Amino acid sequence: MSDKIVLHCSRGAPQKTTEFGGFCCPVAEGNPGCMQKGKAWLRYTSHPSRVSTAVKMKANLMLLLAPLVSAAPTIEHRQASQSIDKLFKAKGKDFYGAATDQGRLQAGKNAAIIEANFGQVTPENSMKWESINPRQGQYNWGQADYLVNWATERNKTIRGHTFVWHSQLAGWVNNLNNRDQLTKAIQDHISAVGGRYKGKIAHWDVINEMFNEDGSLRNSVFSRVLGEGFVKIAFDAARATDPSAKLYINDYNLDQPNYAKVTRGMVANVNKWLSQGIPIDGIGTQGHLQSGGGAGLAQTIKVLAATNVKEVAVTELDIQNSNNNDYVAVTRGCLEEPKCRSITVWGVRDQDSWRPQGNPLLFDSNYNAKANYNAIVQLLSQ
């Protein structure tokens, strides 16, 4: 059988070249270029996304690519050379995870990439109130069950998202104007959803996005009817439902250490609520960043960790445009803060992001690991 190497070309099919005994993709933007026996990869990138091991290579080629050949089945499976989750855990952290849901897991290579490269999943939409409890007393468990079962079978940590949020909220909840009725609705919802997955979900975003940019309470049915009392109602219900789960308060724009939403909003209120005995275990900073925002988030991690919570996490990371240095800065920021336990990116590949225009994730549209992913690998390999 003749020697064969399969390159994953973005455009066109790979071709064997008799000129130098190698294999090339057509010359096109995004293609990985050529492989030549006894020499390095040429032209566009340093490595292709896949190297076939279906046949033997000649001795000189085997010597050149020995590290790749030995790892080839894993590379083909995960579309990346190393798992950032395993590397992150080797540094003493809990996980590097990704948001997903049933539709994503059943499409393309999402499931394979998450299984090989990430250690945790967050349901992108299936556990939000309007999705899982659209009408009073009615629960739609299908998509959430799928995600929980998929993750449990593969020993992936699960972050529940989210119990109480003003957005994507079931209409019947928005129409409650009575304190007792709204209190019971919160308690019943948390008891039903949290109870169904008790012991399977390690972290819950109990309350999501409750602060305005100036640090005041956001106007929502919860704050209008219950004031800030809904915080205690929700966290007490979550603790009673699943005592082993770590309970988080989660928000966006917690990206600059001196920003009012950070200082007057999250930091001041969380310390106050903890002093009142409200069982808040952690603060989640979502991390929906623009290019250049990584250093600010890294600094803010330390500010959030300086509160009296047990831990903090980056929960929904995506970074617009040129972002290699930003991903490295955020990852380093978490590494350097003992209370920062985990990072979750908000999706797998760029085109599936909720804001795809800036190519904000770690895998491209062809499920190839991008330079930002490899930059994280390099950092974690030090």
UniProtKB/TrEMBL annotation:
<dbReference type="GO" id="GO:0005576">
    <property type="term" value="C:extracellular region"/>
</dbReference>
<keyword id="KW-0326">Glycosidase</keyword>
<keyword id="KW-0119">Carbohydrate metabolism</keyword>
<protein>
    <recommendedName>
        <fullName>Beta-xylanase</fullName>
        <ecNumber>3.2.1.8</ecNumber>
    </recommendedName>
</protein>
<dbReference type="InterPro" id="IPR044846">
    <property type="entry name" value="GH10"/>
</dbReference>
<comment type="similarity">
    <text>Belongs to the glycosyl hydrolase 10 (cellulase F) family.</text>
</comment>
<dbReference type="GO" id="GO:0031176">
    <property type="term" value="F:endo-1,4-beta-xylanase activity"/>
</dbReference>
<keyword id="KW-0624">Polysaccharide degradation</keyword>
<dbReference type="InterPro" id="IPR001000">
    <property type="entry name" value="GH10_dom"/>
</dbReference>
<dbReference type="GO" id="GO:0000272">
    <property type="term" value="P:polysaccharide catabolic process"/>
</dbReference>
<dbReference type="Pfam" id="PF00331">
    <property type="entry name" value="Glyco_hydro_10"/>
</dbReference>
<keyword id="KW-0964">Secreted</keyword>
<feature type="domain" description="GH10">
    <location>
        <begin position="81"/>
        <end position="379"/>
    </location>
</feature>
<dbReference type="InterPro" id="IPR017853">
    <property type="entry name" value="GH"/>
</dbReference>
<keyword id="KW-0378">Hydrolase</keyword>
